[in-house]
């Protein structure tokens, strides 16, 4: 097992007008002070605007590696959002965990809570709008650095300064980067065998399971 990783920051956000009143979003998140309760649907004080595509048990908590901020500074320059945590709408910020090292089905002790990796994030247009129209969405897909989601298995609390520690890894061959490549970044076109094998991951979240079925039918 790997060593516990320090949690740099925990972010929460409220739903507010994003691109006019008809497009609300809670992508703007701010660091929380002190412990935050972790429950089945996420973090106390955190909201999602469109529950059809955000939130729910399989997307309770979003983790984005702070490791990638250096890459984004190279792409976007010294954008003010990159000077703080939560630029990409993430709930958890760390350094030392990336899509290349985190796997589907991983179980982690997050503070005192127990969480399980359910799927990678599928970025959308809101990231472009948040960064003043720059093509963040496309660059994120191309670089395969979109982060991932957790489902909550045991409720608890988490705060900046706590650690996240790997408890179990049942699918070491299925990194987030590999699954994201197959389902989102187009790798299924040259790796149908991998796409078929992904069906063995029973804890794969429903949206990604459906995406896999769609791609198998093409």
Automatic annotation (TrEMBL):
Which PANTHER family is this protein grouped with?
A: PROTEIN YIIM
> PROSITE patterns annotated for this entry?
MOSC
What InterPro entries does the entry give? Benzoxazolinone_Detox_Enz, MoCF_Sase_C, Pyrv_Knase-like_insert_dom_sf
| UniProt cross-references to SUPFAM superfamilies, sorted A to Z | PK beta-barrel domain-like
Q: What is this protein called?
A: MOSC domain-containing protein
Q: Which residues form the MOSC domain?
A: 30-167
Give one Pfam hit by family name: MOSC
